[in-house]
Write a structure and sequence with these properties.
alpha/beta, 424 residues, eight-stranded mixed beta sheet, globular
């Protein structure tokens, strides 16, 4: 007699493969170098999935329902495929849009030279906007000197051609976070110690120039890649619906994505990481983004049926009902998203979900089994789940499950690439 874990292993077979580790790969090729982002899928994984698991027959349209920093869209563009990506984090939308744009390199260099001339002429008296009330606790997180310099950078970027300004804002976006008093190595908003602050003297303008130089190199490489497919950047929430006038049912050939592994508040802090730039640029929902992301609104009961993780959920509930409800809230949104994504994929189309199996209250949740189970209920057959180590993924080696400094647990060291085909 087979027990449930053995049945699940047979149903959703896992293959451990070092071929997918990419230990020494350059993960900053093309425009992938533009901007840091939590838990980024490395380009080599997206590239190999698009190559090795392209669906039979028509292969024209790629979809990423949780696009993050746009890795899949850039890779789809490089091989000439039309792609759609969506994310309700405005910073993700901003990064993805800039990364998939082919700016004229000569125009960008000329504009950068003009910006550098303006930086050389900087004096605090030239700064027009010194009102920083849109930044939460601005004096707590920044020195006045750096706020003034950031405002000056914003001012001179705003004065250049609006068609190219975002290229320079993407460099500014990273600087906004790096010159703050946030602790290095954290995605959540933890302040440096007072001792560290005393010795913290970032060169705001030099950081900006370094990032622009880096991004110009990436842009040159991206522009040299051919052919170039069209990337369409969206901001709808796939947990609610996928607009049929944007992506008609049955129109997608392949989905390549890396969804969140849990709610943003307790897993990977997308909202807190993004808040620096979202507030600086006055993007929508900068302060309450975590409540809008998957699992942000609490549920009282599961809205899905599961065999694959039923015992794990019962175990978590027995240890702490509050944490159980947090997990359920995320899984409710995640399963709704899966239902919607399923409709967008054509018969014979394929999906590749790169997921992590997080641990809650000492219980590991096999999200790869749950993902396969939910898609199976929507007309898909499981092909294989590839297990890869994640030496290069941009995640902290430990994460804080609460907002209490010092309370940390180890993050997952493997991720699971769930590959399925739509059969009916």
């Amino acid at each position: 007699m087979l027990y449930l874990p053995e049945i699940l292993f047979i149903m959703y077979k896992r293959l451990v493969s070092e071929e997918w580790d990419f230990k020494t790969a350059n993960t900053k090729e093309y425009t992938h170098c533009y901007h840091s982002y939590p838990a980024m899928m490395i380009p080599q994984v997206a590239r190999k999935l698009l190559h090795d698991y392209a669906p039979e027959g028509k292969f024209e349209t790629v979809f990423d329902p949780y696009m993050g920093s746009g890795t899949t869209l850039v890779e789809a563009s490089i091989i000439g495929k039309k792609s759609f990506g969506t994310d309700i984090n405005p910073l993700a939308e901003f990064i993805s849009s800039v990364k998939t744009t082919h700016y004229d390199i000569s125009i960008m260099k000329k504009a950068f030279n003009n910006l550098q001339n303006e930086l050389f002429l900087f004096t605090p008296e030239k700064v027009i906007n010194t009102n920083f009330t849109h930044i939460t606790s601005c004096d707590f997180w920044y020195s006045q000197e750096n706020l003034i310099k950031l405002s000056y950078l914003t001012q001179i970027i705003d004065n250049i051609d609006s068609n190219i300004a975002d290229f320079f804002r993407i460099a500014l976006s990273e600087v906004v976070r790096e010159v703050s008093f946030t602790r290095n190595g954290e995605f959540k908003r933890f302040k440096m110690s007072e001792e560290s602050i005393k010795n913290f003297y970032p060169d705001t303008f030099r950081l900006f120039e370094e990032k622009v130089h880096r991004n110009l190199r990436g842009l040159k490489e991206y522009n040299s890649a051919a052919p170039n497919g069209k990337a369409i950047i969206c901001n709808f929430n796939s947990s609610i619906n996928i607009p049929s006038d944007v992506i008609p049912d049955g129109s997608v050939d392949i989905v390549v994505t890396s969804p969140p592994y849990g709610d943003s508040r307790t897993t990977v802090a997308y909202g807190q990481f993004s808040r620096w730039a979202n507030e600086w640029f006055k993007f929508d929902n900068a302060k309450n983004l975590d409540s809008l992301l998957m699992g942000g609104k609490k549920s009282d009961e599961p809205k899905f049926n599961t065999i694959s993780i039923r015992k794990e959920l019962e175990n978590i509930d027995s240890k702490e009902h509050k944490r159980y409800l947090e997990v359920i809230s995320f899984l409710n949104d995640y399963s709704h998203s899966i239902n919607n994504v399923s409709k967008s994929i054509r018969i014979g189309g394929r999906l590749c979900y790169v997921v992590g199996n997080r641990t809650v209250k000492g219980v590991q949740i096999p999200l790869d089994y749950f993902t396969a189970e939910m898609f199976e209920a929507n007309g898909f057959e499981h092909d294989i789940t590839i297990v890869r180590r994640i030496p290069n993924k941009r995640m902290p080696t430990k994460t804080s499950p609460t907002n209490e400094p010092g309370k940390k647990v180890g993050t997952m060291s493997n991720e699971y690439i769930v590959i399925m085909t739509k059969t009916h």
